[in-house]
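pls ignore typos typing on phone
arginine + seq
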Amino acid sequence: MSKNLDQEVAEFSTSINEDQQLYWFDIIGSLAHGKMLQKIKILNQSEAQQIQLGLVQLLQSIEKNQIDLSIYEDIHSAVEMNLKQIIGEPAEKLHTARSRNDQIVLDERLFLREKIIHLIRGINNLQKALLTLAQKYPSLVMPGYTHLQPAQPVLFAHHLLAYFFMLQRDAERLQDALTRLNQLPLGAGALAGTSIPIDRKFVADLLAFPSVQLNSMDVVADRDYILEILSALSIEFIHLSRFGEEIVLWSSPSFQFIIIDDAFTTGSSIMPQKKNPDIAELIRGKTGEIVASWISLAVTLKGLPLTYNRDLQQDKPPLFRAIRECEKTFHIAARLMNNIQPNPEKMEEALKNGFLTSTDLCEYLVGKGIPFRKAHEMVGSIVRELASHDKNLHDLNYEELEGYIDCIDREVMIVLDEKQSINRKQSEGSTSLQEVKKQIDIAQKLLDQWTDYNTRLEKEWHSKYELLLKGE
Ligand code: ARG
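k done
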């Protein structure tokens, strides 16, 4: 470059405010790269050792806040320039066969695989909170809704577990993204690879990547590994927003199905009677930001020619923002669940409205040989008539019911009982006590599997990092 960069241009184009969070991974990646350069004899032993010790020293200084990173263009130049200050000339060899274009992708991939495990753990904690509540109230019955109209009795635990399994898929989506993310990008150079005989498999092994990315242009041009994560997180938040909405509904004076601990609600500055479910509302409300982060990156990527373009630097604000918000939200959502208590009396009261056992009555009549469509018609007309007299199914005694339908027996009175309805369900995945118990057992096993998965991967990565830091 012939001239010094214009100050405003420098400020406009810097990414250090965002990417300084990647310092740890930039240094770990540099340690691995240096080791490989020694293997292929670009660095002699003394140079390699100086680089290794210098990078570790730099890492410690950054951790002690002794270095002002904000004055550099990005984290890669910050690390390189500071290393030069610490060890002098050998630092100039470290950037051999490497470009910031493949370096940023390496930093992001290393950072993100750790974050994926954190995020999965956050989801698991929320799953655990749901499961704990389900286990605590295994037989509590409440109205289930369609169109927000009372539909059929369901177990409270069944409703909670519906969210458990949505969250399970959300965690699996992140796990799936990890399989594609977890590949070594380094060695792509600026875009075309390098004439220097680097050993990419060796670097992959040092950093615990199961494989290397195949196409150097693909490496530096794409950010789909971020897009995938943001997409998984968007779906997760769409789930959470529905969950937040249900907490809002259930805790409202119109439902009163749950009681939220006072520490998790707020009052109003003007209306003294208010107990507002702000946390649930904010969980619901933050969804916009997460989905927007996916859109932000998708629009950035759209139409970019291969390969690296500076636009790609704009991947960081949405990525970091989304991860920060997700981590906070998963944490508080789990705590919110731990501070919620159901209100069985109100659920029971609500069960009495809305003819919730109408479908059970139809199915009972099917058992008596009546075609379902006919049974539906018969029950429909009884319900309409009762409704016009402001009465309910359970207001009928056996004799009155016999007046409407002649093929019934005494068992029908149990069929009409909202709380008994649960026990009549038989199908797999239904809201019966046994089926929900089955779900609870499976849910517990899934959580145990996650614990194994998360710790196994972290251990594998961290033991590799330790070797690099120790210079072994
Ligand atoms: N700060 C840049 C980014 O985040 C790093 C790569 C810079 N490459 C370049 N050719 N300027 O994308």
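Strands lie at 141-146, 149-155, 183-184, 211-212, 258-260, 340-342. The chain has 20 helices and six strands. more later
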